[in-house]
Amino acid sequence: MKPLFVKGPSIGTRLLLLSAIAFVLIFAGQRYAWFQQIDAKLSVIATPFYWVSDIPAKISEWGELNIRSRENLVDDNEKLRAETLLLKAQVQKLASLEAENVRLRELLNSSALLNDSVLVAEMMGVSPNPLHHEIIVNKGETAGLYIGQPVIDALGLMGQIVEVGPLQSRVLLITDATHAIPVQVNRNGVRSIAEGVGLLDELVLQHVAATTDIKVGDLLVSSGLGQRFPVGYPVATVTEVTIDPGQPFATVKATPRAALDRSRHVLLVFSNKNKQAGNESANQAASATAAGGQR
């Protein structure tokens, strides 16, 4: 009867035998080309073992990407939402800056066409009273402003300064019900008076004879009469001409060229004649005040 258990070689003997076989294989792989071919074919057999050994690392990586706690996902969503809001705010700011640059370039282009010197000012406020069309600009006596000084934007005449402070001034718009400006039709030179009616998009021409050569689309410019506004500034465009056969005067309405409800930057026009007139008026007022005090 054969024994149930047969004692094999010792561990040391096995290790020595395996080391010798490994040394022979390494030597043969370096010396013989046919053994390298066998090694390449054996690598195909070893590939699945590499795949199997890499499975734990793949599972760990998949778990980090897909098996995350709800708190981490919520935190990530909050961070992404905050970053999205910040980027949207920056885009809005960039859009605002781009529009402002466009408006400033338009102002610079319009100032290049003027013979008078100009100064750029920024609007600080608007009159809260709907019956008064007035704005406040951030320039005053320190910048050399004077009462009656014309104010324009890139499209046309806006109004005139009616009050000057040390650092700010008040501008009366041409659409105010108390404002009137001498104008003329740019096409043929017909003169008239454009008066405000309290609407930002409407002016009315008073006492225009029914036979006057004026029609829709005509450009109205400042005529220079009254020596308050220089000649040639665009004021309005005629939008309506109504002739009643029973009336001696026609009803003529026009729309201001200036963007009265949108312009933020304006141009303050320095005309030598107007400035001298304003200085003379101020000197006369001061002299009258001093004379009254002496009396």
Walk me through what this model shows.
With 295 residues, the protein is α+β, with helices and mostly antiparallel strands. Helices cover 41% and strands 26% of the residues. The chain contains 4 helices and 12 strands, in the order H-H-H-E-E-E-E-E-E-E-E-E-E-E-E-H. Strand 10 and strand 11 (249-256) form a beta hairpin. The longest helix is centred in the first third of the chain and has 43 residues, at 70-112. It is rod-shaped.
Q: In short, what is this structure?
A:
The chain has 295 residues and is α+β, with helices and mostly antiparallel strands. It has helices spanning 11-31, 33-66, 70-112, 272-294; strands at residues 117-126, 134-137, 150-152, 157-164, 169-173, 180-185, 191-196, 203-209, 219-222, 234-242, 249-256, 265-270. Helix 1 (11-31) crosses helix 2 (33-66).
Radius of gyration: 44 Å
- The secondary-structure class comes to alpha+beta
Task: Please trace the helix and strand order, writing H or E for each element.
Answer: HHHEEEEEEEEEEEEH
End-to-end Cα distance, whole Å, is 156 Å
Mean pLDDT: 77
In CATH's first tier, which class of the largest domain applies? Mainly Beta
CATH architecture group name of the largest domain: Beta Barrel
Search tags:
295 residues; alpha+beta; Thrombin, subunit H; 3 domains; six-stranded antiparallel barrel; six-stranded antiparallel beta barrel; 4 helices; 41% helix
